[in-house]
DNA sequence: AACAAAATTTAGACAAGACTAAAAATATTT
DNA sequence: AAATATTTTTAGTCTTGTCTAAATTTTGTT
């Protein structure tokens, strides 16, 4: 049996591991999980005992196959619940995270598969992140950061990097919604801000914003 | 903030309190929650500190207004989730309990009201139990135990007393479903078994069964 | 009313998960 | 390569929720 706390650690380690190539540091986990490094050391030992992670003192942590599988399953649940909340219960994309953090820990062999079917097997959550399938396979995507797109190219907005409520509300305010078409009109070299055409309006966005929008060129 | 454990205690106390008229005993709570009396004493003190229950040493426990309100809200969540599982996710009525026990603890101001609306404001759960409304009001019903029904009366099956998986499967096997019409054909005085007509078939049921079926006379 | 039985509470212990402060190992700088 | 800074681990403590065993109160019986 896996505890709620253990699940949260695995999820954090998974996200850190896929960001960075190498073994995840104690400090990085502590920051992500908003705890202290000493607490992480304790928990990581427990996870290693249960064969969820590989751990050598002072050398960082990596997920085992079992650990990765478990983490992906939690992420699958999280994202499916997000789709449910938005599609069926009128939540907006900036409201779903905290509730999904709770729902992702519900344990039922049947529940998630039925939910998946009920939602008609969605492939992406409301923020554009891919939903792992039953076997833990995650579809790769050729999305890039908008900040990397060339001037005068057309692209489609397919996901966010930062899914904080504040950022999502900023996007709503400017009518930037998943699926929108964007034309890159130009970039300023001094502050790396960018001018884009979206929904027939020109808009100037900061580097921070363009770095947190994923697009596909079309 | 209320913990998961505290919520489970409140729910247990609520169910025991509405069964019996008087204050709930430590032992009764321990049995319901499958723990030990000493653990109950500890927890009950904490609940009293937080003004969820009234408690005097050796004198049993009763819910305060705040405690009852909290308990009813948990029961509302439990029953709404049960409806969701049965109506939308193809769970059968004997499969929902364990999952609903987990889902009832999800905290979100918005989630339950939206779920309620999504389910079109159901009044009863899949076992025939009433769903408290937003304000904690529970519809009273004139249901009686089938064992109390007179010979030769007609009635409608509206709820179960025992909602254990085994009992529910027994009912499924004999095609006894919520809403069925039942005619009481006779009772044996020596073992209090009962012969009924249901779905055009006669069936002999034990006292245990007739005691766990709620009906309304029609 | 006194005694036995049952129920309840207290005292002390334990596991999980977190923390602080101090020690140890690794990284970085000069 | 030594000195310093940073990171990580250890040691010891705390809280929550549970337990067992012993003590206490209440209840039931003669």
TrEMBL record, chains A, B:
Residues 1-64 form the HTH dtxR-type domain. Coiled coil: none annotated. Keywords: Activator, Cytoplasm, DNA-binding, Manganese, Repressor, Transcription, Transcription regulation. Gene3D superfamilies: 2.30.30.90, Iron dependent repressor, metal binding and dimerisation domain, Winged helix-like DNA-binding domain superfamily/Winged helix DNA-binding domain. SMART domains: HTH_DTXR (SM00529). This is Transcriptional regulator MntR. Belongs to the DtxR/MntR family. The keyword Repressor applies. It is found in: Cytoplasm. The keyword Manganese applies. SUPFAM superfamilies: Iron-dependent repressor protein, dimerization domain, Winged helix' DNA-binding domain. InterPro entries: DtxR_MntR_Metal-Reg, Fe-transptr_FeoA-like, Fe_dep_repressor, Fe_dep_repressor_sf, FeoA_core_dom, HTH_DTXR, Iron_dep_repressor, WH-like_DNA-bd_sf. Pfam families: Fe_dep_repr_C, Fe_dep_repress, FeoA. Homodimer. In the presence of manganese, represses expression of mntH and mntS. Up-regulates expression of mntP. Its main location: cytoplasm.
